[in-house]
Amino acid sequence: MTSRFCRRWLCAGLLTATVAMLAPASAEQGYRPYRNWRFGVSAEVPSDWKAGREPDNNDGLAFTSPDGAATITVSGILNADDAPAAELIADEQRARDGETVTYRKASARQVVISGTSGDMIFYRKAILSCNDQIVNHLLIIYPAAQKQAFDALVSHVAASMRSSPGEQIPKCK
Predict the structure, then answer these.
(1) Helix (H, G, I), strand (E, B) or coil at 87
(2) CB 151 within 8 A of CB 144
(3) Distance separating alpha carbons of residues 34 and 13, to the nearest angstrom
(4) Which among 6, 35, 152, 156 counts the fewest CB atoms within 10 Å?
């Protein structure tokens, strides 16, 4: 009897640990803020996701889920060609090679596009800032098989994304 009881608890414990490792960040796990000083973009990312190496040009940072299956990238770029806002927004709405778009929403200074690419789901959000001289980006990529588990995470991270004056362009301060 003791042996069977212990095995049940051991199995339950292993199942719980496995589910915790596979699940994306939950409200209990929490989030931490990330802000890119150069372009002024910020978002909250899951506390247990690992930050990658910051690029030499300091344009943003990628975070990887504990299981390595998903990524969140928060970054910015200069509008080096001084393209009009409408052109930037139109460009951000375009599907890339291999993507099937299932959702698009755009306004004068912001766009969201989501869909699938193979067995992965992508979520991209772009916000124009600094008199349209900076395009801030959020990109979340995760397994389509885990869509329901990621819905709350994507909603939280996307809602937390902000654009504020960055250090790149002095007139933005």
Answers:
(1) helix
(2) no
(3) 33
(4) 6
pLDDT value of position 42: 96
Instruction: Provide the residue ranges of all domains of the chain, joining segments of one domain with +.
Output: 2-172
The token duo for 28 is 């209990």
Q: Which two tokens stand for residue 87?
A: 């052109």
Q: Which residues contact 73 (CB under 8 A, 6 or more apart)?
A: 60, 61, 62, 63, 137, 138, 139, 140
Note the pLDDT tens digit of each residue in 78-97.
988 888 988 988 889 889 99
**Which residues on adjacent β-strands are paired with residue 128?**
135
Cα 49 to Cα 64: distance, rounded to the nearest angstrom: 5
pLDDT reading at 161 higher than 70:
yes
**What is the domain class of 2-172 according to CATH?**
alpha beta
Exposure of 12 in the CB half-sphere (CA atoms within 13 A): 6
Tokens of 105: 């929403």
